[in-house]
């Protein structure tokens, strides 16, 4: 098998970053997430390949929090579109976990299928190579295996690294793009037979069997009031979720020119569905809360055949009100939904 | 100069406003085209995103495509963008992108009697279907239009309503105002009650409804009372939309997106969805 010595990682990253924008999990002072290797500051940053999970998900690599879409110019006789910003620069995400990678698989469904292709997303996605890190020690809030994710075999990875606990990662290329990485990194890869690490059990488990179907029958239940009671509709769950993808489109004017941009939006905000003229189909916090959890656990399933939650646990950690999606899943099965 | 971006569905094409018709105090119809005519072909009931580039975008039903010449949008002034749009003149350049959504089932309705029920600006999307039926008159049976608004001034498309459509073969137009008004000797009262008064028989008919959510709810109840089954009743829904292509998230009703799977649904389809419309 091919192995990669951990002490060669900085050199490996430097090499990859020569040809691509490389994103790796970093701890930057108080914050952790997937950052460009170019931003690595030896004095204050640490590589966070062991951290489960980095606080910020990697979705911004493919769906930036704010991105320019196109610019326009007002001129004599009207207006013209001057530039369309489709970013096709090569990217590598290194060290992504199976949950976050499954979230990207969800984004692929939403942005690339069902009649229309989101060209902005596609331009990035087509040029992104993914090296996933297999998880052998799930964190306290992890429940990916309950959501149909195999933490040892991250689906959709171009290459996989496995931490043997020694100074080596096992390196496995899985796709032609992964093979290409192996070629690029040939000077750092060695041949060595090592035992696979032992995987540990999940502390947190839920049973998704039948949940989507059950939720499709309890839309009008008063239990949603109770479940959503503590929710402050702050939206932190949607921002930290690796698979939440809703966006808003807005405009910025700069004199005679300007540009349209899109930015992450949240279904937890009242404005999200507020129509011109004031009608709002989801005016209450309970309605918005219900829509969010049904989107995650029922609607996305119905539409794309997979839940829109991958069990990464971030929203459980971050929610200031203690709302826990794994408990909602359990409630779907066990609670009394009758009026 | 960046030309047509048909490749990227989120980037508008530039069109010129070639005509503006004042329909009501707060509704104007805009005719738009580019140098070649229509920027794209639209089926009745489909939507397009209209952009005032420096201001914003809004999703509107296309109230008619005139051959390959121009698209028509009847737009009510209700918010920031529409307010601004109502202040521009002929010759102004705006953006449009589309077409979006499924449109009306014009083929499936062939051979049927058509009953159109609209309130206020709700006639804008239905107009494309009504005009389509009139254009292909022999494909459809009897055509009845029931239309109501708050006041006479608020009735859209007055020339078609009072002059053109009633002259068409086997076509009836029933108009009602919410309240009595000096000079109005037509029907007064809300649409659902007028509908029950007229009591059009359900046999061989398709009913198409659009209007304020509250009117739709009551009109649906009336139709049910009158014996219309769920497959015979079609409506076109509205929600806030940003992208038009089923990605931005907000226009869902259950797992369906109004911009993509709608805006047109029959009642049988709607009853399978959560009651959030």
UniProtKB/TrEMBL annotation, chain A:
- Asked if the Swiss-Prot or TrEMBL record annotates the protein with the keyword Iron, the reply is yes
Give any GO molecular function from the UniProt entry. metal ion binding
Annotated Gene3D superfamilies: Alpha-helical ferredoxin (1.10.1060.10)
Q: Name one Pfam family in it.
A: Fer4_22
Keyword annotations for this protein, in alphabetical order, are: Iron, Iron-sulfur, Metal-binding
Extract the PROSITE patterns matched here.
4FE4S_FER_1 (PS00198), 4FE4S_FER_2 (PS51379)
Under the heading InterPro entries, the entry gives: 4Fe4S_Fe-S-bd, 4Fe4S_Fe_S_CS, Helical_ferredxn
**Stretches assigned to the 4Fe-4S ferredoxin-type domain:** 220-252, 300-328
Name the chain's protein: 4Fe-4S ferredoxin, iron-sulfur binding
Give the organism the record lists. Answer: Syntrophomonas wolfei subsp. wolfei (strain DSM 2245B / Goettingen)
UniProtKB/TrEMBL annotation, chain B:
Which keywords are on file for this protein?
2Fe-2S, Iron, Iron-sulfur, Metal-binding
- Please give the SUPFAM superfamilies that the UniProt record associates with this protein: Ferredoxin reductase-like, C-terminal NADP-linked domain, Riboflavin synthase domain-like
Boundaries of every FAD-binding FR-type domain copy: 10-106
> Does this UniProt record's set of keywords contain Transport?
no
Q: Which residues bind [2Fe-2S] cluster per the record?
A: 243, 248, 251, 259
- The residue ranges crossing the membrane are none
Short name of one Pfam family: NAD_binding_1
PROSITE patterns (alphabetical) = FAD_FR
* Gene3D superfamilies for this protein: Nucleotide-binding domain of ferredoxin-NADP reductase (FNR) module, Translation factors
Q: Which domain of life is it from?
A: Bacteria
Q: Does the keyword Iron apply?
A: yes
From the UniProt record, give one GO term of the biological process aspect. Answer: pyrimidine nucleotide biosynthetic process
Question: What is a GO molecular function of this protein?
Answer: metal ion binding
The protein in question is named Oxidoreductase FAD/NAD(P)-binding
Q: What is the lineage of its organism?
A: Bacteria, Bacillati, Bacillota, Clostridia, Eubacteriales
């Amino acid at each position: 098998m091919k192995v990669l010595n951990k002490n060669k990682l900085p050199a490996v990253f430097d090499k990859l970053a020569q040809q691509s924008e490389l994103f790796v999990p970093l701890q930057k002072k108080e914050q952790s997430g997937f950052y460009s290797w170019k931003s690595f500051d030896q004095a204050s940053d640490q590589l966070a390949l062991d951290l489960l999970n980095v606080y910020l998900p990697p979705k911004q690599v493919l769906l930036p929090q704010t991105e320019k879409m196109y610019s326009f110019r007002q001129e004599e006789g009207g207006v013209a579109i001057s530039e369309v910003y489709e970013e096709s620069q090569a990217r590598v995400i290194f060290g992504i976990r199976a949950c976050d990678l499954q979230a990207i698989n969800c984004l692929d469904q939403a942005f690339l299928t069902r009649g229309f292709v989101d060209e902005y997303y596609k331009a990035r996605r087509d040029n992104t190579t993914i090296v996933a890190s297999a998880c052998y020690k799930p964190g306290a809030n992890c429940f990916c295996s309950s959501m149909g994710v195999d933490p040892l075999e991250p689906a959709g990875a171009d290459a996989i690294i496995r931490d043997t606990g020694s100074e080596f990662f096992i390196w496995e290329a899985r796709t032609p793009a992964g093979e290409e990485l192996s070629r690029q990194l040939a000077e750092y890869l060695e041949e060595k037979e090592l035992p696979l690490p032992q995987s540990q059990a999940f502390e947190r488990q839920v049973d998704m069997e039948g949940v989507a179907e059950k939720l499709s029958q309890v839309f009008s239940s008063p239990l949603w009031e109770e479940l959503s009671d503590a929710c402050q509709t702050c939206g932190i769950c949607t921002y930290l979720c690796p698979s939440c993808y809703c966006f808003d489109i807005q405009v910025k004017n700069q004199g005679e020119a300007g540009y349209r941009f899109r930015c992450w939006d949240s279904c937890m905000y009242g404005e999200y569905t507020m129509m011109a003229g004031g009608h709002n189909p989801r005016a209450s916090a309970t309605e918005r809360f219900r829509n969010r959890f049904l989107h995650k656990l029922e609607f996305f399933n119905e539409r794309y055949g997979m839940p829109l939650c991958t069990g990464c646990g971030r929203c459980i950690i971050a929610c200031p009100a203690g709302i826990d999606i794994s408990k909602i899943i359990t409630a779907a099965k066990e609670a009394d939904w009758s009026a | 100069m960046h030309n047509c971006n048909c490749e990227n569905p989120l980037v508008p094409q530039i069109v010129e406003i070639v005509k503006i018709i004042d329909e009501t105090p707060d509704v104007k119809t805009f005719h738009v085209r580019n140098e070649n005519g229509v920027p794209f072909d639209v089926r009745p009931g489909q939507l397009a995103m209209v952009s005032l580039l420096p201001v914003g975008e809004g999703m509107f039903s296309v109230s008619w495509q005139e051959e390959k010449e121009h698209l028509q949008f009847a737009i009510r002034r209700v918010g920031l963008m529409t307010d601004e749009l109502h202040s521009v003149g002929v010759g102004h350049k705006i953006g449009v992108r589309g077409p979006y959504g499924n449109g009306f089932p014009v083929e499936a309705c062939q051979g049927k009697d058509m009953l159109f029920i609209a309130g206020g600006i709700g006639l804008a999307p239905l107009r494309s279907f009504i005009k389509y039926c009139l254009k292909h008159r022999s494909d459809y049976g009897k055509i009845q239009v029931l239309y109501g608004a708050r006041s006479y001034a608020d009735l859209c498309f007055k020339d078609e309503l009072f002059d053109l459509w009633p002259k068409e073969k086997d076509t009836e137009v029933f108009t009602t105002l919410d309240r009595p008004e000096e000079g109005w000797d037509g029907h007064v009262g809300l649409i659902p009650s007028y509908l029950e008064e007229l009591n059009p028989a359900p046999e061989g008919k398709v009913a198409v409804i659009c209007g304020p959510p509250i009117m739709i709810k009551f009109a649906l109840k009336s139709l049910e009372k009158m014996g219309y089954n769920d497959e015979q009743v079609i409506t076109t829904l509205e929600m806030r939309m940003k992208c038009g292509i089923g990605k931005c998230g907000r226009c869902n009703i259950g797992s369906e997106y109004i911009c993509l799977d709608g805006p047109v649904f029959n009642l049988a389809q709607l009853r399978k969805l959560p009651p959030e419309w």
